[in-house]
Design brief:
By secondary structure, this protein is α+β, with helices and mostly antiparallel strands. 26% of the residues lie in helices and 33% in strands. It folds into six domains: 4-103, 3-Layer(aba) Sandwich (Rossmann fold), CATH 3.40.50.20; 110-131 and 205-331, D-amino Acid Aminotransferase, Chain A, domain 1 (2-Layer Sandwich), CATH 3.30.470; 132-201, ATP-grasp fold, A domain (Dna Ligase, domain 1, 2-Layer Sandwich), CATH 3.30.1490.20; 339-448, D-amino Acid Aminotransferase, Chain A, domain 1; 460-583, Glycoprotein, Type 4 Pilin (2-Layer Sandwich), CATH 3.30.700.30; 596-662, RNA polymerase II/Efflux pump adaptor protein, barrel-sandwich hybrid domain (OB fold (Dihydrolipoamide Acetyltransferase, E2P), Beta Barrel), CATH 2.40.50. Strand 1 (4-7), helix 1 and strand 2 form a beta-alpha-beta unit. Helix 4 (89-97) runs antiparallel to helix 5, helix 7 (141-151) crosses helix 8 (174-192) and helix 12 packs antiparallel against helix 13. Pfam families: Biotin_carb_C, Biotin_carb_N, Biotin_lipoyl, CPSase_L_D2, PCC_BT.
C-alpha cells in the first residue's frame, strides 16, 4: 500500500480524502494557493506545499507544480478529488511519466469519457441508450441555430469539456440559441480552456439519475445503485439522494448493467459515475460519464456501507475488488444538500467573506458534514462557493428528510449569505416529499425566484414563543443583579408584547415559569416550553409542547432575530406601555437607489455593453459580471437613458457597488 499520497485539490473534497487516507494509515500531502494558506485541508494534512497565487490557473491547475510537490515530499500517488485536474488526461500522462500513481482511471478512459462528444459515440457503440443530438463540433452561431432547428427545440447547448453547470444553456427558440451559444462558448473557454459546444435534444419532464460504478484493474466491475440528482438550479445539483424514489429494481438493474458495460468498453478502473436522463416512463438515456469521484458520493456510501475513496486508493494500488454484484445491498435512505455561499433571496448570487460564526450540526450515525471551512476562515471569490455537504440518513426517505430538516435548523453560519433557507424550503415542499420531482422542479415551484413567501410556516407562533422565552430568561437574570436597594427589589413582569421587526405585528404574551419549564401564552393559546438554553448560546434547543425545536438566535440591539425551518423574523419584546410608545416612533425611509444599477454580487466586470447618453430598452444587455467562473448578464428592466458609467471594464466589484447611473425620469 502507498505510504504517502498527495491530494491535488482543496476544500471539502481534500479534507474528505485525507480522512480516508488517515483511516488507512497513509500519510497525506496538501497543496495550497495564496488564498488557501490557512485552509482546513492544509491544517489536516501531514504536510503542505505552496503552489502559487490564488487564481486556479496559476496554482491548482499547474501540472508541473503538482508533480514537483510530489517529488519534494516523496508522495507516491495523487488523488485529484473532483474539478481542477481530476479529468485532465495531460495530468494523468504527466504523473505516469513521473512514475507517480494516479488514483483514478487510465488515460484512455479519461480521454474517451472526458469529452462529451466522443463519449456519446462510444456509448452508442456499446449499446447504451443515448439522447438524439449533434455530436460534431459547431463552428459558429449560425450553424448552431441550424442544427437546433434540425434536432427540434427545445435543445441543450453543452460545453464538450464542461461540468458543474458551466457552459450549459437551454434554448427554446433561435434567439435563445444565439445568446446561449455565445455564453456557453465563452464560459467554456474561460472555465476549461476548450470552447467546443455540442447540441442535443432537451428531454421534457426529465429526471437526472446516475449510477455509481466501481471497477478494478483485473476486469471486475460492479454498480452500487443509483443517485437521484434532479433537484438542480442552473444545471448545478443542489439536493441528491440514494436510492431514487422513482427507480424500480428492474430499471436499476438495466441502468447499472449498461453503466458497467460502458466502463468495460473503455477499460475503466476506479470509481466512476454514469449519468442518465430518465423520462416519465422510465426510459433512460446516457448523458455523460464522470471519470472521477462525484460531489454527491456520500449518499452512496451511507446506503451501501462502502468507502469509495478507500476503494479508489486500493484499486490504484492494483488490489482486486472483493465485492460481487450480489454483495451490494441498498439499506435505508440518504439525503444530501449542498450548502453554498450564495443569497437565495437575491437570485442566488454568490457571497464571499469571512465566516464570523460557523457551527455545523453535530455529526452522528444519521448526520454527516463534509466541509473544508471553519469559523474565522474565508469564502474566496476564486473558487467554488460550496461551504459544505450536509448528509443525513434514515431507515426511510421520510426519516432522512426529517433528519435533514433538523440538521439544517442546527447549521449556524454568519458572516456570509447562504442557501440554507432555500434547501429548508425544498425539504418542506410537499411535492418534494412525495418524490414527484424532475430537473424542472425548482423552475416550476419557484417560477419568480425564491422569496420569504416560499418558506414553510407550519406554526407561525413558534418563533414568537421562543422570543418570549428568551426575553423572560434574560429579564430574570437581570433581576438577580447584586447591590439592589433592599426595599425596592427588581421584579420580572409576566405580561409582555412581542413586536415583529419585519411586519410590525404585535403579540400579547403572558409568561409563567420555574427553572427550565415555562408556560408561554399568546392570546388564548398556551405553549409548554422546556430547554436547557443558557444566555449567550447561539441555538435554542428544546421542546415546545413536547415537540423538538431548534432555533438560531442573533441578538439585535435589545431584540432578537430568530431563524428556524428557513424562516427568519426579528422581535423586540417589551412591556405593554413601551409597546404603545413604540408606535409613535417616526419611520426613516431608506434612500432611493432606483436610478442606479448596483452590482448584485462580488465579481469581475467583464464587459460594459452601453455608453453614456445611450437609450436602453427593456431586456437590453447592460453589462456582464463574472463570479465563481460563471458569467451573469445584467439587463435593463425598463426603458432608460444612461447618465454615467461608474465602473470600468475589468474592475473587481463588491456587492451593491454602483455600475451605471440612469436619468431620474426614466430608470432602467
Amino acid at each position: 500500500m502507498f505510504k504517502k499520497i498527495l491530494i491535488a485539490n482543496r476544500g471539502e473534497i481534500a479534507c474528505r480524502v485525507i480522512k480516508s487516507a488517515r483511516k488507512m494509515g497513509i500519510a497525506t500531502v496538501a497543496v495550497y494557493s495564496d488564498a488557501d494558506k490557512n485552509a482546513l485541508h492544509v491544517q489536516m494534512a501531514d504536510e503542505a506545499v505552496h503552489i502559487g497565487p490564488a487564481p486556479s490557473n496559476q496554482s491548482y491547475l499547474m501540472i508541473d507544480k503538482i508533480i514537483d510537490a510530489c517529488k519534494s515530499t516523496g508522495a507516491e500517488a495523487v488523488h485529484p478529488g473532483y474539478g481542477f485536474l481530476s479529468e485532465n488526461q495531460a495530468f494523468a500522462k504527466a504523473l505516469d511519466a513521473a512514475k507517480i500513481a494516479f488514483i483514478g482511471p487510465p488515460v484512455g478512459a479519461i480521454a474517451a469519457m472526458g469529452d462529451k462528444i466522443t463519449s456519446k459515440k462510444i456509448a452508442a457503440e456499446a449499446g447504451v441508450s443515448t439522447v438524439p443530438g449533434y455530436m460534431g463540433v459547431i463552428k459558429d452561431t449560425d450553424e448552431a441555430i441550424k442544427i437546433a432547428n434540425d434536432v427540434g427545440y427545445p435543445v441543450m447547448l453543452k460545453a464538450s469539456a464542461g461540468g458543474g453547470g458551466k457552459g450549459m444553456r437551454i434554448a427554446r427558440n433561435d434567439a435563445e440559441c444565439r445568446e446561449g451559444f455565445e455564453r456557453a462558448t465563452s464560459e467554456a473557454a474561460s472555465s476549461f480552456g476548450d470552447d467546443r459546444v455540442f447540441i442535443e435534444k432537451f428531454v421534457e419532464e426529465p429526471r437526472h439519475i446516475e449510477i455509481q460504478v466501481l471497477c478494478d484493474k483485473h476486469g471486475h466491475g460492479i454498480y452500487l445503485g443509483e443517485r437521484e440528482c434532479s433537484i438542480q438550479r442552473r444545471h448545478q445539483k443542489v439536493v441528491e439522494e440514494a436510492p431514487s424514489p422513482f427507480i424500480d429494481p428492474e430499471t436499476r438493474k438495466a441502468m447499472g448493467e449498461q453503466a458497467v458495460a460502458l466502463a468495460h468498453a473503455v477499460d475503466y478502473c476506479s470509481a466512476g459515475t454514469v449519468e442518465f436522463i430518465v423520462d416519465k416512463d422510465k426510459n433512460f438515456y446516457f448523458l455523460e460519464m464522470n471519470t472521477r469521484l462525484q460531489v454527491e458520493h456520500p449518499v452512496t456510501e451511507l446506503v451501501t456501507g462502502e468507502d469509495l475513496v478507500e476503494w479508489m486508493i486500493k484499486i490504484a494500488n492494483d488490489e482486486k475488488l472483493t465485492l460481487a454484484q450480489d454483495d451490494v445491498k441498498l439499506t435505508g435512505w440518504a439525503m444530501e444538500t449542498r450548502i453554498y455561499a450564495e443569497d437565495p433571496f437575491r437570485e442566488f448570487l454568490p457571497s464571499t467573506g469571512r465566516l464570523v460564526r460557523y457551527q455545523p450540526p453535530a455529526e452522528s450515525a444519521s448526520v454527516r458534514v463534509d466541509t473544508g471551512v471553519y469559523e474565522g476562515g474565508e469564502i474566496s471569490m476564486y473558487y467554488d462557493p460550496m461551504v459544505a455537504k450536509l448528509v443525513t440518513y434514515g431507515e426511510t426517505r421520510d426519516d432522512a428528510i426529517a433528519e435533514m430538516r433538523a440538521a439544517l435548523d442546527a447549521y449556524y453560519i454568519r458572516g456570509i449569505s447562504h442557501n440554507i433557507p432555500f434547501v429548508a424550503a425544498v425539504m418542506a415542499n410537499k411535492r418534494f416529499q412525495s418524490g414527484n420531482i424532475t430537473t424542472n422542479f425548482i423552475a416550476e415551484e419557484y417560477p419568480n425566484g425564491f422569496s420569504a413567501d416560499d418558506l414553510p410556516n407550519d406554526d407561525p407562533a413558534m418563533l414568537v414563543v421562543v422570543a418570549g422565552y428568551l426575553n423572560q430568561r434574560v429579564a430574570e437574570r437581570n433581576a438577580r443583579v447584586t447591590g439592589q436597594v433592599s426595599d425596592h427589589p427588581l421584579t420580572v413582569a409576566e405580561s409582555w408584547v412581542a413586536v415583529s421587526g419585519d411586519d410590525h405585528t404585535a403579540f400579547d404574551i403572558e409568561i409563567d415559569g420555574v427553572n427550565n419549564d415555562y408556560i408561554v401564552a399568546i392570546g388564548d393559546r398556551s405553549y409548554g416550553v422546556s430547554s436547557d438554553w443558557k444566555i449567550g448560546d447561539a441555538l435554542f434547543v428544546g421542546e415546545i409542547d413536547g415537540a423538538p425545536v431548534c432555533v438560531q438566535i442573533d441578538v439585535e440591539g435589545v431584540g432578537y432575530r430568530l431563524s428556524a425551518n428557513g424562516i427568519q423574523r426579528s422581535f423586540k419584546v417589551m412591556l405593554p406601555r413601551v409597546a404603545e410608545l413604540q408606535k409613535l416612533m417616526p419611520f426613516k425611509a431608506p434612500p432611493d437607489m432606483s436610478n442606479f444599477l448596483l452590482s448584485p454580487m462580488p465579481g469581475l466586470l467583464v464587459k460594459v455593453s452601453v455608453t453614456e447618453g445611450q437609450t436602453v430598452q427593456p431586456g437590453e444587455e447592460l453589462c456582464i459580471l463574472e463570479a465563481m467562473k460563471m458569467e451573469n448578464v445584467l439587463k435593463a428592466e425598463s426603458k432608460g437613458v444612461v447618465k454615467k458609467i461608474h465602473a470600468e471594464q475589468g474592475a473587481n466589484l463588491s456587492v451593491d457597488a454602483i455600475i451605471i447611473e440612469f436619468e431620474k425620469d426614466e430608470v432602467a
